[in-house]
Write a structure and sequence with these properties.
The complex is a heterotrimer. By secondary structure, chain A is of the alpha/beta class. Chain A contains ten helices and nine strands. In chain A, the strands form two sheets. In chain A, strands 1, 2, 3, 4, 5 and 9 form a six-stranded mixed sheet that branches. The radius of gyration of chain A is 20 Å and the shape is globular. The termini of chain A are far apart. Chain B is of the alpha+beta class. Chain B has two domains: about 190 residues, no CATH class; about 130 residues, no CATH class. Helices cover about 35% and strands about 25% of the residues of chain B. Chain B starts with a strand and ends with a helix. Chain C is α/β, with parallel strands linked by helices. In chain C, strand 11, helix 6 and strand 12 form a beta-alpha-beta unit. Chain C is globular and about 55 Å long. Chain C has seven helices and 15 strands. The longest helix of chain C has 13 residues. Classes of the chains: A alpha/beta, B alpha+beta, C alpha/beta. Chains in contact: A-B, A-C, B-C. Chains B and C meet through strand 5, strand 6, helix 4, strand 12 and strand 13 of B and strand 13 of C. The complex binds flavin-adenine dinucleotide, iron/sulfur cluster (SF4) (4 copies) and FE2/S2 (inorganic) cluster. The site of one iron/sulfur cluster (SF4) has 14 residues of chain A, from helix 7.
């Protein structure tokens, strides 16, 4: 049961809290289907911690800035997939391993609330209740009951590290296991590409009409540690216009794509937070698919491996000169 | 007996279509593909874009009057033919584009208030803003009160109410079958509007049943809304903001999870900060303005590298003080209309009510 | 429809003369192209303007010519960033855009009958220059005038031509100081606040006007407080990043004040009422 897991978590944190300056975890939110990141320092606060299928946020987002601001060690509660962001940051030497204690919890899947929003015809959800296999969702005049297994995040359907994190300092095992019908990696991207270039272009055209250039996608990304130095906001060099419109929105994503090629751990945070509901993860995945093909590399899995785009080989096996034109 | 003016719900569609012949009509329209509701032209309605009067729009109305990006003027470097040594500069000012009159239908009272505040900024004092006025003038605002109040609404906490129509020209109340006109401004423009479409504005005597219905709805909405947060008194809150301003540890604590994006600012009906920039290609270029956000590192960064608000907590503190302190001092009003949009879009669950509450209880 | 003046569109002006002040500061003398506007142009000491290099941008500079000079407007520009670099690259005869005058000004009427102590650091002499000109012109209304002017090295003083004139005429007592001693320098050596402390000017019936970089303002004010100057008797000008200059874009706020419309001139008394730090 969920409570058993939460108790294990709290026990673990109690034993660690003395040695850590601050711990980032999940806590309840008043908003339905959401949780709140919480920063705790004392034993008394430990009771605020929760862990359930709604803990979507990737708390690794806070690691870079917080570790720069604290003297001591910080603890972060992570899902096995979130820990990939930490691995990636460490392998890029953006994070110092000894400053972070990764407390990883076994995961049995997380809910994609945009899927639920869709299932209730985008009516505003005013309350929700979660149990082991089902979720009840209430709008202003209706109540819906859904099976959890249909509403997990896309990444859960291809996940194979849910009880076997690639790296951790502490691991808390979850008795509940992820029990989903597996999908093929990048199956959704291949499916999407079948519609042809013209349709794809039209799709993005429409999507980006709504982009308000709020930079939420950039600022929530655990790997975009550049938020206060971003080229998209600079006057010198003035690479990108400050205008807010569809084409600048697309150009901004191009910048993000290049910055994240071979780095993105596909956590899905950018897509989750976009107030314009743009399907940003599709873009990130496409680039990662190419990187996988060229370099046989998946970001965020091996701590002491130099990411391929941070280095070079004299001869790249998978890149053929004649294909480069 | 009091006369009741109302629009029958079943003739609403015809009414809107009719007025769209004479006006540019804007409505809350939901994109069925991604669920987002925004104000848009009636002309885009089709099977994928449908009118939705129930919920708040994702973007506030400021989008229409103060767009995310607009050109201020264009310039061109020109050689003087007689005197080729000299390069002249020609400026072309934006024309008063011959905009048709607008009707904006189905705005919530909180958004009407948002517009009232934009008027305070852009249409008062000596430095009026012609770009804003150009779009804002000749607009008829038809608001519908909130018979449904959602958990993130809190207009009653900050001096509004689900049926306070502010400076809207027409205020409607939805009693299910009909939309009852509960506010009508006295202007000639509106008298003419009502007369022009008199077929749709029906009249009857007020009866007990309707009166009870109206009272019940108003009471219920006010009640629900006021359970969403406590009442905020403008005077007390400024004093509290002043006395806690220098409590850096408090501000650091309550803003720790903020990632300093612009989501909350860009959806807010009252945030109007903007940036100005030039762009040039060959000899021609333009100066434009576009939205900007005070939680952004670059906002106050000076050429010397000095940044008066270097840290997120300092910037967020400015944002909250702008709304719950500075604006009150300048304009006697809280600079927040309680729409709850910022709460809805925040990636990390910052809730302005919780923030202000923790300041009050500090 | 109400006709509203568009305050965001600059007027075209011509750079008539460029003066090299220091290694990284130049002064521009600018004339509005439109004769009518030029004739009617009036400004008060302390007010500023926004200078555009079209295609690059706009930035803020105080008008530092004498308010009594009608032929041109002078601005001094320190090279710090994109737009200031573009301004440094201008030549005489080239066109710029100007939005001026903006902001408030020094309350020189309130200073009548009092001694005035001007304290400038580096480019901070610019906002003081028009005020000094005005006050010297009306010197019978004021008591003793003193200028303490600090710069890093002897080469970093702007307006040396004015200073020489002022020294010779005796209208105003001028004390110059540099950060570190150097060969041939015969005036004060030391940071502005330290020299001020050494000079110990009397606070009685005296107004102090301090302009310069933030850090210098901070420490100078501390010394003035030590010397018993009251908050009402200390004035300064503040800098914040600006865009619109007319109280709309929100960028330049310090607490509830907009530097562009409520400032740039503030008394310490006003500043102390603001919750946000002004430095
Ligand atoms: C009221 C006032 C009077 C001033 N008077 C003078 C003067 O007489 N002489 C002088 O050399 N400098 C003066 N400054 C400072 C001057 O405005 C900046 O140095 C200049 O804007 C830097 O522009 P940039 O484009 O070169 O810098 P960048 O760093 O490239 O800046 C880009 C933009 O940031 C803004 N900005 C950056 N720093 C400042 C700043 N410190 N103040 C205001 N805006 C800034 C400008 O809008 C500029 O367009 C004054 C500033 C203010 C507020
Ligand atoms: S893509 Fe979405 S999150 Fe990113 S800037 Fe645009 S609107 Fe904001
Ligand atoms: S780009 Fe998006 S999916 Fe990839 S790591 Fe960043 S936030 Fe996660
Ligand atoms: S409060 Fe939320 S939406 Fe606003 S800047 Fe912070 S993270 Fe972004
Ligand atoms: S601060 Fe938030 S609740 Fe208040 S008006 Fe802005 S978006 Fe609405
Ligand atoms: S510069 Fe725009 S408000 Fe002051």
């Amino acid at each position: 049961m969920v409570n058993i897991l939460e108790n294990k978590l709290k026990e673990k944190i109690s034993s660690l809290i003395e040695e850590l300056e601050i711990i980032i975890g999940y806590s309840e939110s008043k908003a339905p289907l959401k949780i709140n990141p919480v920063f705790i320092k004392t034993k008394e606060e430990i009771d605020r911690l929760i862990f359930n299928n709604l803990c979507v946020n990737n708390l690794a987002t806070y690691s870079y800035y917080l570790s720069a601001d604290t003297k001591g060690k910080i603890g972060i509660i992570l899902k096995p997939c979130d820990v990939k962001s930490i691995i990636q940051l460490i392998s890029e030497e953006l994070l110092i391993k000894n400053k972070i204690k990764t407390i990883v919890i076994g995961c049995n899947g997380i809910i994609d609330y945009k899927k639920i929003n869709k299932a209730v015809n985008y009516q505003k959800i005013i309350s929700a209740k979660l149990d082991e296999n089902n979720i009840t969702v209430n709008t202003i005049d209706k109540s819906f009951n859904f099976k959890l297994k249909d509403f997990f995040a896309q990444k859960c359907y291809v996940c194979n590290i849910y009880d076997n994190p690639p790296y951790y300092d502490e691991f808390i095992e979850n008795d509940l296991k992820l029990n989903l019908e597996k999908k093929k990696e990048y199956e959704d991207i291949e499916e999407f590409e079948k519609s042809g270039l013209e349709k794809i272009y039209k799709f993005w055209e429409e999507e980006f009409n709504n982009c308000i250039r709020c930079y939420a996608c950039r600022n929530i990304c655990p790997l975009e540690v550049c938020r206060d130095k971003c080229i998209a906001q600079l006057d010198e060099p003035h690479w990108q216009s400050h205008k807010i419109n569809s084409s600048e929105g697309k150009f901004f994503q191009l910048i993000r794509i290049f910055h994240l090629a071979g780095r993105c751990t596909e956590c899905g945070e950018c897509e989750r937070v976009c107030p314009a509901n743009i399907e940003l993860l599709k873009l990130m995945k496409k680039v990662n698919q190419i990187i996988l093909k060229l370099f046989d590399y998946r970001p965020g899995l091996i701590l002491d491996m130099k990411p391929p785009l941070l280095t070079f080989k004299n001869v790249e096996q998978n890149i053929k000169d004649e294909e480069l034109i | 007996m009091e006369k009741l003016i109302y629009i029958k719900k079943e003739s609403l569609k015809n009414f809107l279509e009719k007025i769209s012949k004479d006006y540019d009509v804007y409505l809350p329209i939901q994109n069925k593909k991604n669920g987002i509701i925004n104000f848009d032209s009636i002309n885009i309605l089709n099977e994928n874009y449908i009118m939705n009067l129930k919920e708040k729009t994702r973007q506030s109305l400021k989008f229409l009057f103060f767009p995310p990006y607009e050109s201020l003027f264009e310039f061109e470097y020109k050689k003087d033919i007689k005197n080729p040594e000299v390069t002249e500069i020609a400026l072309s000012k934006p024309g008063n584009s011959n905009l048709r009159e607008k009707v904006i239908f189905g705005i919530k009272p909180c958004d009407v208030r948002g517009i009232d505040y934009l008027d305070l900024v852009f249409n008062s004092g000596n430095n009026k803003d012609p770009y804003y006025l150009n779009k804002r003038e000749n607009t008829i605002i038809i608001s519908i009160g909130c018979s449904i109040v959602y958990p993130d609404c809190f207009c009653t906490s900050i001096g509004g109410s689900p049926f306070n129509f502010g400076n809207a020209n027409i205020g409607l109340l939805d009693i299910g079958s009909d939309l009852i006109v509960t506010k009508l401004d006295e202007s000639e423009k509106i008298k003419k509007f009502i007369a022009d479409y008199k077929d749709f504005f029906e009249k009857k005597d007020m009866d007990d049943e309707t009166e009870n219905k109206i009272n019940e709805i108003v009471l219920q909405s006010n009640k629900t809304c006021s359970t969403n947060w406590k009442k905020i008194n403008p005077e007390n809150i400024t004093a509290k903001m002043e006395s806690t301003f220098k409590e850096d540890a408090l501000w650091q604590e309550i803003t720790k999870k903020c990632i300093s994006c612009a989501a909350c600012t860009y959806v807010c009906p009252t945030c109007v900060c903007f940036n100005i920039a030039d762009e040039q290609k060959d000899k021609k270029g333009e100066r434009y303005r576009c939205w900007d956000f005070c939680t952004n590192y670059y906002y106050t960064l000076e050429a010397s590298g000095h940044n008066p608000r270097e840290k997120i907590y300092q910037r967020y503190r400015n944002k909250i003080n702008c709304k719950y302190n500075y604006f009150i001092k300048r304009n006697k009003n809280l600079y927040c209309v309680g729409c709850g949009r910022c709460i809805d879009v925040c990636p990390v669950g910052m809730d302005i009510r919780e923030i202000v509450s923790s300041i009050i209880s500090f | 429809m109400e006709i509203v003046k568009n305050l965001l569109i600059p007027q075209i002006a011509t750079v008539k003369k460029i003066i090299n002040e220091t290694t990284n500061i130049i002064s521009l003398q600018i004339v509005l192209d439109d004769n009518e506007s030029l004739k009617n142009f009036k400004f008060e000491p302390g007010q500023f303007g926004q200078i555009s290099v079209f295609g690059v941008g706009e930035s803020t500079f105080v008008i530092n010519s004498s308010p009594l000079v009608k032929e041109y407007l002078q601005f001094s520009v320190m090279k710090t960033g994109v737009n200031t670099t573009a301004i440094h690259n201008l030549s005489e005869g080239e066109k710029v855009g100007l939005r001026a005058p903006l902001g408030n000004w020094f309350p020189y009427k309130d200073m009548e009958g009092r001694n005035i102590l001007f304290i400038a650091g580096g480019i901070g002499a610019a906002p003081l220059r028009p005020l000094i000109f005005y006050i010297i012109e009306n010197k019978n209304k004021y008591k003793n005038l003193t200028l303490l002017y600090a710069a890093r090295t002897p080469e970093d003083f702007c307006f040396q031509y004015d200073i020489n004139k002022w020294k010779n005429s005796g209208d105003i007592k001028v004390i110059q100081t540099i950060d570190n001693a150097c060969y041939g320098w015969q005036q004060e050596v030391g940071l502005c606040p330290d020299i001020l402390e050494k000079l110990k000017p009397s606070f009685e019936n005296t107004v102090a006007v301090v302009c310069g970089p933030p850090i210098m303002i901070k420490y100078t004010i501390e010394v003035l407080k030590k010397l018993k100057f009251s908050d009402e008797a200390i004035y300064t000008t503040l800098e914040r990043r600006m865009k619109c200059g007319i109280g709309k874009c929100g960028r330049c706020n310090i607490g509830e004040k907009f530097v562009c419309t409520d400032g740039p001139v503030f008394s310490l008394k006003e500043l102390n009422k603001i919750c946000e730090n002004f430095i």
